[in-house]
């Protein structure tokens, strides 16, 4: 009860303060979602740690998946907290390099000590053993993931070289990243769910760190990160550049919410982010851009794009249910989920990379 009360106060305080710290970076809906997610992260980080401390070493809660989940949550919670602190005091810190380095060293030492005490073993060695234990499957998957990552880097470099200082790429061009993230998440979700959760969490930490470096101009990476401006959504106009972070979060949140399970088998809700963004949103943009003629009232979105999103989402859901991912959905349920998701894509004023996956995830849990 005490923790819940503290989190409620934290939610209202952060909702009020974040728009002041980072002007024009969030709409009211986006900041509400982000702060709620942060509060859930705090809750899910502290409760497993308390359970681990109060249980014996041979209890069920100390299974590998639970240890890995707790490690990820604690790492991410601490890291996000440190980065937010650095960004909030950026105008008052005389030596931002020293301030950031000191906080990160304090974070690293504290996290290592906490996890070592809770796990009763070295967390680095334990994570290494977990990564290598499954007949090289994790290593092979990481090598495969390097392929879309390399193509993405080449894609960014090519378009950054071609673009002028004030020219942004088209919406269709940005959908390349939706295809690339599908190449990472689909095989990862099907074959190595636990590794995908760990990798997506670490990548999100890296994106947040790069954004911190870009704002504070702490490293040569901030010059590279400035190239992101060519790929920004028109809604992304504040202090923070969040389009790429929202895409990663949107695809990851349904998987993070479902968490770990013993057989790594995905269910239909796990695919919410991939279907809504990688299939529906991409289809709507491509078809709407090349074939769109009729626009929705007071919107840049086209009717043809919305129909393409509806059809592509429907076919994907039907194919997944027939392949055994979750219980079979009726045609009416598939039409309802697909239609509502396509309409939200057409009419939302929020960043669709963030809201579409959460909306579709909720629908799939309740149909």
- Average pLDDT, rounded to a whole number, is 77
Structural class: mainly alpha
Shape: globular
Please report the distance between the alpha carbons of the first and last residues.
31 Å
The number of distinct helices, counting runs of at least 4 residues, comes to 15
Largest sheet entry: none
Overall helicity: over 70%
Percent in strands: under 5%
Pattern of helices and strands: HHHHHHHHHHHHHHH
Estimated radius of gyration: 21 Å
Number of beta-strand segments = 0
Q: Give the quaternary arrangement of the chains.
A: single chain
Low-confidence stretches: 57-62
Description:
The chain has 367 residues and is an all-alpha fold. Helices cover 73% and strands 0% of the residues. The protein has 15 helices and no strands. About 2% of the residues have low confidence.
Brief overview:
With 367 residues, the chain is mainly alpha-helical. It is built from 15 helices and no strands. Helix content is 73%, strand content 0%.
